[in-house]
Structures are given as C-alpha cells and as structure tokens.
C-alpha cells in the first residue's frame, strides 16, 4: 500500500493554496497581505504517527508541520500543533482545514474514504515503511527526507542514526548471558498483556541484546498466569507514561503471577518512556542503548 | 410545555401530527443547510455563492454532501426500524437489536476486522474497504433470518420466541465476539472500539449507493404497514379479527427492519439511542398512531443524526468525536429529562 508520490510543489498551486489559506485565516485580508504571504510560503505538512513526526523534527523541519495526530507527542513543542485525532479515525475535512500540501503517515491511516478524499483533493498522502528493526528506522528516515526534499539532512540523520545503531549493536553483541525480558503493556484486572513476536516491544528487546521471554503469539496479547510463570523472565519491562497511567513496581508485585517471576523476586523491573521505547523513530538507538544499560548495567 | 397526546381527541391528534410533520420537515431542511455550511475548514455556503473554487467543490461534493446524505439515510433508517420493532413487539423498549440485527452486524464486523487478513488475496482486494460493511450487513441479515426460522412454526411466527431467541443469539454473538477480541491485535482492537461507537467519517457515494436500495424502500413503504401495526397494538388475535394478515405483517416488518437497520449499521457502525428515543418522543407528542409515527420518525431521526454529526465533526476540529458518543451523551440526559417531566404531569 505504500504510495511513493514524490512531492512536486508547483509554484502555481502553492500560490493558489496560499491564497486559500490567507483567505480563510484572515477572512478577506487585503491583496497586499496575500502576496506577501505567498512569497515566504513553506510546504504545509500534516504528520500522522509519532515516529514520523519525530523524524520530521529530527530532520530540522519542525517548522513545516501544521498538524499532527494524537500519537505524536514528542518533542513537547509539537503538542501545540492542532491534533487531527486518532490515525485510524481521521476526519477528512478536519485534515483539509489545516490546508496541507503534503501528508506524511505511518502505515494504516484511515478510514480509507478519508484518505481517498484527501488524495482526490490533490494532497499527496505518503505512507512510510514501518518495520520494527534498525533497517526499518533508517528506511523511514530516508522516506520522510525524500518526501520533504531534505535529502542532505536525511543522509546526515541516517548516518547519525546508523552510528547509534552500531553502538547499540556493539553493546548487544558484548552480552554474554542474554537476559529474558517480559514486556508488560498493561495489567487490566490483574491480567498481563504482554508483547509477543513481531511486536515493537520484541524489536527493541532484540536491539538491546535481550531475549523476549514470551513467544508463540503475534503482537500484544493477554497471557495466562501460568504462561507468565513458565516464561520465568529475568527482567520485567514496562512503560513509564508519567501520571496516573504508569504501572508501578507495586502493581507488578500485587499481581500474583508476576510476583512469582525471578524478575520480581530480584526486583528487576525496568520502566521506560513508552514513545521512546516503542516508537521506532530516530531515538530508537538511544532507547536500545538505554535498555541495554538498564539490563546489563553497562 | 408540550401537551400530552393521550389527553387530546383523535381529530386534534391528526391535525397536530400533520403539523409536527411539517415542522420536522422544516427542521430537517435547516439541519441540512447547517450541515452543508459548517465544518472544520470554516468554508460556509455563503463563500460558495459567488463562484466555487476547486477546494470548496471538494469539501462540498466529496465530504459534506455524502456525510449529510448518509446522516439522513442512517438516522431515518434507525428511527423507522425502531418504531417498526416497537410496534411489532408492542414494547416501547424494542429496537432493531431485538431481531438480532445489531448483534449479527457487530459479529460480522468483528469477524471482518480480525480475520479479514485470512481471506484469499483476490477476494480481499475485490472487496477492499467494503469488507467490513459487507460482512456487517451479511451478519445482520444472517442473524435475523436465523431468528425468524427459530421462531417460526407451521407458518406462524411467535413474537415471544423471537424475543427470547434473540437474547440467546445475542449472548452467543457476544461470546464469539469475545473470542475474536482475544485474538485481535492492538490496532484491530482500536478499530473494533471505533466501529462500535459509530461514525459518518467514512461517508462516500459508494456506501450511499450500496445502502440506498435497502433503506429507501423501507422508508417510503413503511406507512403501508401502519394500519396493521395499529391493529396489532390491540393484540394479535384482535388484529386478526379486524382482517389483518398478521403473519404477513410480521414477515414484512422483520425483513424491512433487517434490510434498513442492517444497511445503516453496516455503513455507519453502532449508533445507539436514535431507534429508541425518536419513536418515544413522537409518541409523547402525537400519540401511537403508526400512520404519523413512521414518517415523523424518519424526519426526526434524520434531523437528529445530522445535527449530532455537525456537533461531532466541529467540536474537536480538526479531530472528530465518534457520533455514537454524541447521540448518547446528548440524547440520554434529554430523554431522562422528558421522562421526568412526564412523570411530573401524569404519572408514568
């Protein structure tokens, strides 16, 4: 489904777009103001998906963003941008109201009808690759940079990020006794929802030189207490979302199955920022190194 | 304060009902204009009067007009289906869910969302984005037909059996849905949640064209059932004595509801409340006569859903609220208030 429409900003269309923007924004400001606006116009980009937004910002292009989705919450400065809602439940007119020239998106934006309308409106809707691996992150950066015509900045960021991955990889390779890690995404009603194969959690655990403690299912699933005990993880990994949503060490110890694991008995519970840990954007090498350090005290 | 219908003589009731019809037609027209003229972009109908730009044309023809049309269709279909069900079951709490449309459609949608990936690639590509609505429609129909068969014996349909079997089938559908939810991944879970809250954000001419043949005939022809449903209010035996073919009435009503409510749920997801509240409000205002109740329900249901949609897509702009939340959040307190008012006057 990846649509690799290169953004060809034609001057005529830009002028027209700027005219609309100015008309709507200023409710009929004078023609002089409109022309002045058109001369300094930048592309207007709506970014959907936290990792794509982070990538745009890391490319130094934060000033082209005019909108974000509800999963884009890093860096904090972008929270001031209008929020178009959840990436799977977009409002076509809501996105149009930001008058974007380009929409960058993670995979799976919807509903399909909304995406179709935006495409019909002549707004390129570019979907980024999103594999949970080092290569996936580099591909994503390359795709975002290409869509924004920031190839030089893209190459620099790719080099930086690849270097980061090389460091993380070296740290992971240096591990002699890999620890098994159970990623717990939530504890609803005392039932453990864990990250299985192919999940973003499995991806980051592998990058950090750990072994995912649970296998045999895809994505995030609730697992039984016995499966938790059988997994016998050395370490429990959780998200630290701040505020009331965060799971605490007490929550873990209050869950009998988790309390019985080697991880809980030894108090090896790691909490990290969810978007950093699972986002798979330019910060992922840092996340892998941080997790590696937390796991192996490196 | 609204005068209660049951205190009026029948001639006055008829005049009053006709006036309500006229009033509702005006309300719907106003709501339609408001809907076309409002949205996140702030483009108003006035802006389009002197020449329409390409962008305004897109907003009007591809976004707002299909949304308006879908809101009218779905709102009217849900309200009329509700009125038909309440007439058939002689119970003001009945809604299309009772004949399994809701549970069946929900099960169909969940199946499509969670297991859609297992379909042969050719079929999946052919159905594309229409897989979920299609599955929901099939599910709604399948459940209704199954219930109908369960409740039929020797050409007679037992309404009571249908009600009980509907509850059992609902529980079964709920259990299967639970299994599928367990299998679903994160994204599918969120899709399921959003489907259950309903939305007109996926409005398109294709969906409207696909649902129109199921909804429009029911809206237009339902008043033909009014006499039979009025007679049925006295009881099945009495209705038969007045010359009503009750078996045919039941069959036609159930199929009509399966068609219209099934299509509405398929394209817009789970939108609650309209089917129960709209007929109830109208019965309070103009009495239980189905000759007026059915057309008025279509008008009021359409108006309410269009207005709820205006709210849903402007209050959080550029994001939007699922419309099912809006209908419940605004509808439920208003409904309670009316019930309390009514208790204050006449006793419930």
Large-scale geometry of chain B: globular
The separation of the N and C termini of chain B measures 17 Å
**Biggest β-sheet strands, sense, barrel of chain A:** 6 strands, mixed
Structural class of chain B: mainly alpha
Radius of gyration of chain A: 22 Å
Kindly state the percentage of residues in helix of chain B: over 70%
Structural notes for this entry:
The complex is a heterodimer of chains A (298) and B (348). With 298 residues, chain A is an alpha/beta fold. In chain A, strands 5, 6, 7, 8, 9 and 10 form a 6-stranded mixed sheet that branches. In chain A, a hairpin with a 5-residue loop joins strand 5 and strand 6. In chain A, helix 1 crosses helix 2. Chain A is globular. Chain A starts with 10 loop residues before the first helix and ends with a helix. Chain B is mostly helical and 348 residues long. In chain B, 76% of the residues lie in helices and 1% in strands. A two-stranded antiparallel sheet of chain B has the order 1-2. In chain B, strand 1 and strand 2 form a beta hairpin. In chain B, helix 6 packs antiparallel against helix 12 and helix 9 packs antiparallel against helix 12. The chains are: A alpha/beta (298), B mainly alpha (348). Chains A and B meet through helix 4, helix 5 and strand 8 of A and helix 3 and helix 8 of B.
């Amino acid at each position: 489904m990846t649509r690799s429409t290169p953004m060809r900003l034609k001057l005529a269309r830009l002028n027209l777009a700027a005219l609309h923007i100015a008309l709507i924004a200023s409710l009929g400001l004078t023609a002089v103001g409109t022309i002045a606006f058109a001369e300094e116009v930048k592309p207007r980009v709506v970014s959907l998906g936290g990792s794509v937004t982070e990538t745009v910002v890391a490319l130094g292009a934060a000033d082209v963003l005019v909108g974000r989705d509800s999963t884009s919450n890093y860096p904090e400065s972008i929270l001031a941008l209008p929020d178009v809602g959840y990436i799977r439940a977009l409002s076509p007119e809501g996105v149009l109201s930001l008058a974007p020239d380009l929409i960058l998106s993670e995979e799976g934006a919807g509903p399909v009808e909304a995406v179709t309308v935006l495409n019909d409106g002549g707004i390129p809707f570019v979907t980024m690759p999103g594999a949970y691996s080092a290569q996936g992150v580099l591909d994503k950066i390359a795709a975002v940079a290409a869509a924004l015509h920031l190839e030089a900045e893209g190459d620099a960021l790719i080099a930086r990020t690849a270097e980061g991955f090389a460091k993380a990889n070296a740290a992971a390779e240096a591990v002699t006794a890999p620890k098994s890690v159970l990623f717990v995404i939530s504890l609803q009603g005392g039932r453990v929802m864990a990250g299985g194969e192919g999940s973003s959690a499995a991806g980051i655990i592998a990058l950090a030189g750990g072994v995912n403690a649970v296998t045999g299912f895809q994505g995030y699933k609730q697992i039984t207490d016995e499966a938790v005990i059988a997994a016998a993880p050395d370490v429990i990994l959780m998200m630290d979302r701040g505020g009331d949503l965060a799971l605490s060490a007490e929550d873990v110890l209050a869950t009998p199955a988790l309390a019985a694991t080697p991880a809980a008995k030894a108090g090896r519970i790691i909490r990290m920022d969810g978007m950093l840990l699972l986002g798979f954007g330019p910060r992922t090498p840092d996340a892998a190194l941080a997790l590696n350090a937390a796991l192996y005290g490196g | 304060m609204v005068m209660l219908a049951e205190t009026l003589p029948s001639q006055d009731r008829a005049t009053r009902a006709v006036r309500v019809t006229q009033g509702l037609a005006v309300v719907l027209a106003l709501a339609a204009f408001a809907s076309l003229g409002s949205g996140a972009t702030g483009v108003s109908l006035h802006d389009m009067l002197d020449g329409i730009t390409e962008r305004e044309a897109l907003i009007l023809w591809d976004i707002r007009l299909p949304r308006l049309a879908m809101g009218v269709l779905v709102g009217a279909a849900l309200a009329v289906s509700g009125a038909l069900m309440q007439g058939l079951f002689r119970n003001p709490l009945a809604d299309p869910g009772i004949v399994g449309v809701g549970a069946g459609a929900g099960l169909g949608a969940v199946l499509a969302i969670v297991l859609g990936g297992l379909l042969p690639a050719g079929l999946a590509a052919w159905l594309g984005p229409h897989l979920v609505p299609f599955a929901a429609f099939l599910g709604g129909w399948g459940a209704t037909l199954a219930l109908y068969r369960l409740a039929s014996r020797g050409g007679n349909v037992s309404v009571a059996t249908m009600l009980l079997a509907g509850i059992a089938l609902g529980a079964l559908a709920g259990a299967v849905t639970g299994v599928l939810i367990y299998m679903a991944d994160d994204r599918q879970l969120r899709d399921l949640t959003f489907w259950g809250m309903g939305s007109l954000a996926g409005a398109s001419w294709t969906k409207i064209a696909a649902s129109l043949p199921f909804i429009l005939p029911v809206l237009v022809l339902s008043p033909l059932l009014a006499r039979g449903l009025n007679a049925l209010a006295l009881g099945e035996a009495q209705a038969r004595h007045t010359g009503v073919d009750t078996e045919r009435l039941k069959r036609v009503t159930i199929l009509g509801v399966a068609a219209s409510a099934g299509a509405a749920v398929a394209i817009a997801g789970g939108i609650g409340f309209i089917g129960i509240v709209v007929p109830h409000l109208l019965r309070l205002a103009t009495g239980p006569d189905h000759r007026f109740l059915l057309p008025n329900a279509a008008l009021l249901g359409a108006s309410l859903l269009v207005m709820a949609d205006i709210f849903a897509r402007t209050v959080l702009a550029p994001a939007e609220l699922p419309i099912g939340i809006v209908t419940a959040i605004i509808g439920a307190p208003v409904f309670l208030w009316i019930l309390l008012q009514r208790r204050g006057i006449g006793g419930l």
